[in-house]
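for the writeup, i need someone to sanity check this before i put it in the appendix. the sequnce is what the collaborator sent (i think, or maybe the updated version? ugh). structure was predicted straight from it, no edits. if anything looks off just tell me and ill rerun, i have time this weekend
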Amino acid sequence: MIFYIEQIYEEGLDFDVLEPKERFDLDYADIVLTDDVKAKGKLEKSGEMILCQGSLQTKLSANCTRCLQVFSFTVNAKLSVNFVPKVESNRSADDIELSGMDVEQEFYDEGQIDLSSPSRDLILLSLSQVMLCGEDCLGLCSECGANLNDNKCNCKYVGSGDPRLAVLQQLKDKLK
């Protein structure tokens, strides 16, 4: 997803690209891109800054955190990045104060901008900490490991909780 700044004219540059999924390494063993990444939007110049507004779409497969089944997950995200020229600075990282604009800021060098890194970051930010195949996922039985979404197991302790706390349950029942 490389664009040359000299090709971005005064009226801007519309883009609609489909990048192969192999170009994006997500660094997750249980989350894999299943579709290529489609980016669509517009690049505009504002002085030396290049503004990118658009959308990003792709599909992933992930393992459900509760039941461990593989499911498909669609990413539809808004792409908003500001590219500024890369300049060498003698200031240390401790002396730099970030503003709200800096969060969506990337650097360009050698007359070209690359949307690959911001696109990868956007895909990773769209992932939930807990990936669920559905809001009503029941997960696995803590005793036998059966997937409770597929069938109900006949374990001795299903629904009764930790057997070591049975004494507290008896006390609670007496107080009713």
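The beta strands are 2-4, 13-19, 31-33, 37-46, 49-63, 70-85, 105-108, 112-114. The two ends are 66 Å apart (CA to CA).
thx in advance!!
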